[in-house]
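subagent[fold] <- orchestrator: predict structure for attached chain, return C-alpha cells only, no commentary.
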Amino acid sequence: MAEVSFYILPSESIQERDEFACKLIEKVYRSACFCYVLTDNAEQSQHFDTLLWTFRAGSFIPHQIYTGARPLIDKVILIGSEQAPIEWQHTLINLSASYPDLEHNQRILEILDNSEATKALGRQRYRFYQEAGINITTHKMG
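subagent[fold] -> orchestrator:
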C-alpha cells in the first residue's frame, strides 16, 4: 500500500513551490530513486523539464518528458501527465490536481503552497487518501 507525504509551504508563490519541487526531485534522485513527476498537462511537463535544467547552477538531474514510449535509459526522472510506466511507480511526485494511481505507486509526495485554491485541492486529495486507508505524513515547511 502507498504512503503519502504532504509538504505544506508557507508561501503562496508558485515560483517557490516549483523551486521546492525541483529540490525534492533532486533529493529523490540523489537517494537513487528514479521517480515520476505527475503533471496536469504537456505544458506543465515542459515547464518542469526546463526548470530542472536551470533551477540551480551545477545541479544535474537526468530527466525527460514521458510520452508513452519507454525511455532509452533506466536511470532517469520522468515527467508527464500520463500514468507512470511500471519501473517508475515506486515514487511519484504529484504536481497535478488529480489523484494518482494508488494501486501501483508505493510513495506519493504532494506539494502544496499556501494559496486557498491549492489548499482546497490538497484537502480533497488528503480525504481521498484517508478514505483509502493510506498512511499520511504532513510536513509544514519553513
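orchestrator: received. Logging for downstream: The beta strands are 3-8, 36-38, 63-65, 77-80, 91-94, 107-112, 135-140. The chain has three helices and seven strands.
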